[in-house]
Amino acid sequence: MRVLVLGGSGYVGSRLCAMLRDSGWASPVSGSSRSRAGGVESVRVDTRDAASLTLALQGMDAVVNCVAGSADAIAEGARALAQACATTGCRRVVHLSSMAVYGMLEGAVREEAPTDPALGWYARAKCDAEAHMTTFARAGGAVVTLRPGCVWGPGSELWVGRIARLLRAGRLGDLGAAGDGWSNLVHVDDVCAAVLAALCRDQPQGEIRTYNLAAPDSPRWNDYFVDLGLAIGATPVRRIAPLQLRLDALLASPPLKLAQLALARAGLPSHALPDPLPPGLLGLWERHLWLDSKSAERDLQLRWTPYEEALNQSAAWYMRPQSTSMKTGLPLLGGDTHTS
Known about the structure:
Oligomer: single chain
CATH class of the domain at 2-154 and 185-233 and 287-312: Alpha Beta
Distance between the termini: 25 Å
Order of helices and strands: EHEEHEHEEHEEHEHEHHHEHH
CATH architecture of the domain at 2-154 and 185-233 and 287-312: 3-Layer(aba) Sandwich
Helix content: 40-55%
Structural class: alpha/beta
Number of helices: 11
CATH superfamily of the domain at 2-154 and 185-233 and 287-312: NAD(P)-binding Rossmann-like Domain
Strand content: 5-15%
């Protein structure tokens, strides 16, 4: 099976390409407008352009959409992909969405819960992208939509690297009630395993299946912050007052973000700057949303990476000298950040 992986140079996409390559039954092709993926066939593609996607989809049996970035890249990219798939006859799509589509919902949330784009631009873009995939499925496509929580593990700049640096700087720690929400962490390998299982399953055309992805033993954010702090030696793990957290997010972070953008436009590295703390993260860390992922366990036969194992892997990756200076401009849930 030849599988085009859009966003194949990203965190999830690059790991997925490696796992597909090693599967013995799939031949991955990394599709990206940026750097080429190592160790697999690669093609440069503008994921927002239907003509470019149509060319890249020639000879493909399936496509996995791991595209991240701006609202346009996410939403318009999904629309262009649906159009290109219809043109080429490539009917199998695995689409990576996000728990952001549930908006401000709290409690245990299953896949049939209503989506809500009110959380911000990222949630709107992910909801729009899912709508394009639904339209494609109704026209005869076979779509599996995956809604992961916060994708972590070795190499995760968003949920390991950045969090570790904030812990070491004393800007993060035990947040009290402000960090009592569920983390919904899911190991990158588990997300990729879900994609592989979705590609292997028989699915009739005209059907869309949707699955939440979060490890059932993922802790509350406070527990994760303390555990990671201990694992990387960022001790003592401080208790962070609510006022300090809000001032950091609302006053210090905007100029830091502007400085990052200015350096990026100038082609200069920004790793010497402190990490911005997007205000949207504050809402995420206190939200009592728990992704119910039993359907994925049942249908895709997932076996989750244990939390302690994932924590040890993540801490070991961060402690390597080269990882501490790496940063990314990927968007994040609830503010300017991306869960996967």
